[in-house]
Every structure is written in structure tokens, then in C-alpha cells.
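Input sequence (560 aa), recorded before submission:
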Amino acid sequence: MASFRRLLPLCSSLRQGTRFSFSGVYERFGANVCGYSKFTSSVHTVSKFEEKIKRAEADASEDNDDIDNIRREFDAAKRSFLEIPEALKAMPKTNPEGIYVNRGLRLDLIQVYGFDYDFTLAHYSANLQSLIYDLAKEHMVKEFKYPEVCMSFKYDPSFPIRGLYYDREHGCLLKLDFFGSIEEEGCFYGRHQLSEEEIVEIYGTRHIGRDQARRLVGLMDFFCFSEACLIADMVQYFVDAKLEFDACYIYEDVNNAIQHVHQSGLMHRGILSDPHRYLVKNGQLLRFLRMLKEKGKKLFLLTNSPYYFVDGGMQFMLEDSTGNSGSWKELFDVVIAKANKPGFYTSEHPFRCYDTEKDTLAFTKVDTFLKNKIYYHGSLKSFLQITKWKGPEVIYFGDHLFSDLRGPSKAGWRTAAIIHELEDEIRIQNEDRYRFEQAKFHILQELLGRLHAVIPSSKRSEAYKLLMGELNEERQKARSMMKRMFNTSFGASFLTDKGQESAFAYHIHQYADVYTSKPENFLFFSPETWLHAPCDIKIMPHHVKIPSSLFKTSRCSSMP
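Predicted structure, C-alpha cell format:
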């Protein structure tokens, strides 16, 4: 640079009009026109160097100005972060018991309401997950010969969420976003959270490709909480014991144990033996079902559970409201138990009439459904042939996206997903502290984007790196705060740590026309209501987007 600057006086004098006698030059250099040409060429070269230097200095000045401007905005934003803006506090709250619409639904066209039982009509307490976990681990120890030490494992309600995926090859529990990428802090091997470097080492990238996706199994229903926790605990045991194991076998054994707990009746008997511990009484449910009947709607119950379990649960939940404990069956036009969903939607199995007193199945063909009768097995094809109910006039409520809703959705029924944890997630999103952190995150994300955009990679100075590090650190704090408000391990079911939609939200969007926390939320709406999908929401209608503009007034007033 110093050598360049020593040439500048010469360049300056040339530009200021120093005159040369062409003839003198000709004489002095012996008419060496070529020599003169070389001299003038070097002068032009010096001029170009000077221009480049000035441009570089101007660019550097502009870059520094951009960094300084973003730095001032960042400092002003940090001052505004000291208190929650009044505008944010005044924002409307989302209804935790609302009905959220993915695809428009005219309730006046719905003539038939169908319901799953478990986690749809039946509300369970948090104690149920511990019961399922304990029964499953006991089955694994006694029947699959897992080490006796596994009996000491305890269900951890703070660990799992709904909508995780298990990688049967690598043994990892994954939380994916709407586009199939692994959450930055959403990958666990056993109970160990993997770093981004460890994720890339295993998968090559955070995005799950089509071939990798074939190894994944989704944990989507309410049983998934105990299943995910037991999988992680078993993997962690083998890791700590330094024993070789096949991750696929772990999944198969845990899944088989969970299925055994459900299908063998162990869970059913455990719940009915102490219903006050596991079941939640629900008078609102009875009001909802009666309201539908009074409006002339048809009702049916379609569940995989056996009749005795459904009957015992319904009697307990409604006994304070019905007076007559057996009257719940009168609310339904058709009751189908042990339906074997999702096979029910594609098979051609016949229906069998179930004798509740003798606990036997009749051999006569079922060609009509009678009130107060119970039917087992069957298929969607036979169901539609017998009832003559047309697809678009039927809505089915269920909690399992694949077993309950995917089949009906493809068959033309309207679908309603029941997601009990939705209420808690909305209540958290309604809190000022969550909205405050979300707004902070969006502001920091915006500043980071601008910083990346205005400073090319070849010109990133120490000032740039320092500001980038501070912005990233503050953004990470805001993201971690939002995550911990929901679940310390995986965050929210519907949201990623960045406030975007998760893969679980994607499946809700794909298979559910509407979703809500419980069926009786429909009590707030007339059966003639038209439910419209909001036009201003991109993906999930219950998500509130906090605009960074809420801070702009205070940010601008804080700037010098």
C-alpha cells in the first residue's frame, strides 16, 4: 500500500495538466515512440491502481457504515428488550379450546358424527403414561429377557413429546421440521442430546432424504409418550453398559411390548381397577353428544378397544351426569369395538354381533345395525353399504393421525384431530413472556439476515465477526427460552425452536380438516356453522406470528 501511495503525487500532477512537448520527448528519446507508449501505459496503470484503492476505501467505508447502523439498531433493540411493549400485551389471545380449520367445513352439511374412544371421547390423566411404561418394561424383562436392572427404570414425563421419529438404523429419536430437517437441538441418542456436528457425522446433513426416511417410524398417538421414553431408556442402558445392540431390535421389542399391553387387556384392566386414578369425568361430553342427537344427527363409535373396557370407562366418566349408567349406548346409532384400525379402512372383514352377556360373537350375517347392539371387527366397505351414509356428510374424530384419520380422509370423510396437548401449547403461546421472546427472535433474525446480505463473505472484518457473534448468541438465548417453556428436551409438538411448523404439524395439516383439544369444544358452535380456514395464516391457523414492528417505536426512539 505504501508503494502505491508514493506514486500518487505523480498521478496527481499528471491530472493537474503538466504539459509535455511531444517534439521534446521525441528528440530526447530518439523518436522512440514505442518508449513513449510504454511510459503513458504505466501512467494509466497507476491511475487504475488509484481508482481501485479509492473504490476499496469507499466500499470499506460503506461496509463499516452498514455494520455501524446494524450495531446501533442492535443496541437500541437490546434496550427495548428490557420491558415488554404495551402493544404486545394488547395483542388478542388465541382460544385454547378453539376449533382450528385447515380446510373449510360446513357443519350444516354434516349429518353423521363418528368418534374414536381412547384419548378422544375418553380423557385420561397423566398417570396413564406411567402405567403403560411400567407394564411394557415388565413385559420386556419377563418375556424378552431384558436385564433385570431395567425394572428400575421410571417414566420421565419431561422427556418425550408427540410427533417424534425413531431411526431404526442409528437408534436416534428425532424431531423434524415441516420440511423434514432435523431440529438443531432435536436429536437424542438414548438420553444424550447430539450436537450439530454429531448429527452431521451420522446423517451427512440435517435434512432427511427419501432413503433415510424409510428407516424412520413416527410416534404420533397418545401411547407414543411412554413408547419414546422407553426406547430412549433402553438405548441408554446398552450404551452405558457398553453392550452391542441393534437399534431396530430395540424398537421392535418396545413396540411389541406396548402393543401387548394394549391388546392383552393389561392396560384396560389396570385402568378399570382404579378409574379415579386414570380417567377424567366429563359432563361436557354428554352435553355435546345430546346436543347432536337433539339436532337430528347420527352418531357412531368406532374403536379398537374391547367393549367391556369402553363400557366401564363411559359409565365412570358419565355416571354423574346420566343418572342411568347404561344410557350412554342410547346416544349412538352404531357401536363398533375391536375394529382393527387402520386395517378397517382397507379390509373386507365382516361385522360380527357381540353378545355382551355371554361374551360371544354371533354367526349370523350382519346386514343392518340395530340400536343398543354392539358390533365387532368389520370394514369401511361393509359399513358404508349397511348405513348408506355418504362420505362428505360424515365427520370422524380421532387422536391418531395415521390409524384414525388417514383412512377416513382418503375415503372422503371429513376429519377432526383431537390433540389434548394443544390447550397447553396455546396457553404458553398466549403468555407475554413467550411472545416477547418470539418477537426478540424475529428482530435478531432480521438483523442477522441484513448483516449477511450487506457484507460479502470476502469483506467480513473483525467488527463484522464480533457483531455476528453477539447477534447469534442473543438469538440462541431467545430460541432456548421459547423451547424450554414447552419441553426441555424437544420443545413444542407443533413448533420448532424457531417458531416454525414441525413435521407433526405437517401431518395435522395433511390429514385433519379441523383440529382441536377435545370434541366437546364443538359445543361453542352451532351445528349449522360454516368453519372457514383463515386466509392470512400460512400453515397452522392456531399459531400467532409476533411482528417485530411491535418494537420499532421503542427501538427508533432509543437510537441516537
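Checked by second reader. The longest helix spans residues 33-80.
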